[in-house]
Design goal:
Strand 5 (163-167), helix 6 and strand 6 (189-193) form a beta-alpha-beta unit. The strands form three sheets. The protein has a five-stranded parallel beta sheet. The chain has a four-stranded parallel beta sheet with strand order 2-1-3-4, with helices on both faces. It is α/β, with parallel strands linked by helices and 329 residues long. The protein has eleven helices and eleven strands. The chain folds into two domains: 12-133 and 293-320, Aspartate/ornithine carbamoyltransferase (Rossmann fold); 135-289, Rossmann fold. Bound molecules: N-carbamoyl-L-aspartate.
Length: 329
C-alpha cells in the first residue's frame, strides 16, 4: 500500500490486514511502554486545511507511538492564508523530507491530487476531504464493530451479515461515504435513514438501502446504529424546519435507545451535538462506543502509518533496511 486515499478503492484483503495490524497495535497500547521504534527516523506531516481536534491528535499520537518525528501544519496562521497554493506547500514539505503527509482539506480530491501530482514523494493519508471520504474513520468504525460484535479474537474476520443503520446528515458526510464502501467490502448490510433533504440526490449506485423513518429502522433491530453529526458549517440553506423537529424525528432519544436489541451498539464519529442527533442518555449509555472509537482510532492510524511507511514496496523499490544496530543517528 502506497497511499490511503479512500475506502472505495480498498481491497478486502488490504482492509482486513489493516484491521488485523490495528489489533496488534491495540495490544501495544495496553502495555506499560506504549511506544514502538518502528518508524524511527521517518517524518510524518499533519497537513490540516480544515479544523479538527480528534483526528489530528489521533494521527499525532499514532505517529509518535511509532517513534516518527511529527510536524503539525495547520493552514490557519500559515502562508496558506496568504494564498500559497497546495503545490507550493507540497514542495515545501518535500524539501523538508516528509515521508508521509496526513491531509485534511475542504476540497474533495485534494489528497488524491497530492498523491498523484509528483510534487512530493511521500505516502499520502486522507484525513477527510470535503464531502468525499474519511477512510481512517471508517476503518476505526469497522474495527470497533468487529471487536464489539465478534470479540477480541476476531483477527482475519470480516463483518459478514452485520446490519448497520447510518442515520442523519448523510448528504454532507464523508464518514458515511467511507463507511458505505468499506462496510460493503466487509460484507455488512447497510441502511441509510435520513430526511429526504439530507440524502444525496442520487444514491442509486450506493450499496445500501434507503429509509426515511427512524422508528421502523430501530424496530428492525440493527446490530449497529451510527448517528451522524448535523454539519451546520456545510449547510447554506434550511434542510429541516427546526432543531427540535429534527431531534424529535431523527434523534436517538432515550425511548428509541430502549427499543434497540440487547446487543446493539450505538456509534458516533464525534463531535456530537448532544440533544440534536443524539441524546445524552444514548451518548453515555453502555451501548455507546464513542470513547472506544477514539481509542481505536489511534490503533488504526498506527496500522495505516506502519503499513505505508515501514519497509514496504514504494514505487517498486524496497526502502532502505534499518541497520542492525537499530539505526542510531
Ligand atoms: C468527522 C469529520 O470531520 O468528517 N469527524 C471526525 O473526523 N472526528 C465527522 C464530523 O465532523 O461530523
Amino acid at each position: 500500500m502506497r497511499h490511503l486515499l479512500s475506502t472505495k478503492t480498498l481491497s478486502r484483503d488490504d482492509a482486513i490486514t489493516l484491521l488485523d495490524v490495528a489489533e496488534d497495535m491495540a495490544d501495544v497500547q495496553e502495555r506499560e511502554v506504549k511506544k514502538l521504534p518502528t518508524l524511527r527516523g521517518k517524518t510524518v506531516v499533519n497537513l490540516f486545511f480544515e479544523d479538527s481536534t480528534r483526528t489530528r491528535i489521533s494521527f499525532e499520537a499514532a505517529a509518535k507511538r511509532l517513534s516518527a518525528d511529527v510536524i503539525n501544519f495547520s493552514a490557519k496562521g500559515s502562508s496558506v492564508s496568504k494564498g500559497e497554493s497546495l503545490k507550493d506547500t507540497a514542495q515545501t514539505l518535500a524539501a523538508m523530507g516528509a515521508d508521509a503527509v496526513v491531509v485534511r482539506h475542504s476540497a474533495s480530491g485534494a489528497p488524491q491530487t497530492l498523491a498523484t501530482s509528483g510534487w512530493i514523494d511521500a505516502g499520502v493519508l486522507n484525513a477527510g476531504d470535503g464531502m468525499h471520504e474519511h477512510p481512517t474513520q471508517a476503518l476505526l468504525d469497522a474495527f470497533t464493530m468487529r471487536r464489539r460484535l465478534h470479540g477480541r479474537g476476531s483477527r482475519g474476520r470480516d463483518l459478514d451479515g452485520v446490519s448497520v443503520t447510518i442515520v442523519g446528515d448523510i448528504l454532507h458526510s464523508r464518514v458515511a461515504r467511507s463507511n458505505v464502501w468499506l462496510l460493503q467490502t466487509l460484507g455488512a448490510d447497510v441502511r441509510l435513514v435520513a430526511p429526504p433533504t439530507l440524502l444525496p440526490v442520487d444514491v442509486s449506485g450506493w450499496p445500501a438501502t434507503i429509509g426515511y423513518d427512524l422508528d421502523s429502522a430501530i424496530d428492525a433491530r440493527p446490530d449497529v446504529v451510527m448517528m451522524l453529526r448535523i454539519q451546520g458549517e456545510r449547510m447554506h440553506a434550511a434542510y429541516f424546519p427546526t432543531e427540535r423537529e429534527y431531534a424529535r424525528r431523527w434523534g436517538l432519544d432515550e425511548e428509541r435507545l430502549a427499543r434497540l436489541g440487547a446487543d446493539s451498539i450505538v456509534m458516533h464519529p464525534g463531535p456530537m451535538n448532544r440533544g440534536l442527533e443524539i441524546s445524552a442518555a444514548a451518548a453515555d449509555s453502555p451501548r455507546s462506543t464513542v470513547r472506544e472509537q477514539v481509542a481505536n482510532g489511534v490503533s488504526v492510524r498506527m496500522a495505516a502509518l506502519y503499513l505505508l511507511l515501514s519497509g514496504g514496496d514504494r514505487d517498486g523499490q524496497k526502502t532502505r533496511e534499518e541497520p542492525a544496530d537499530g539505526g542510531a543517528r
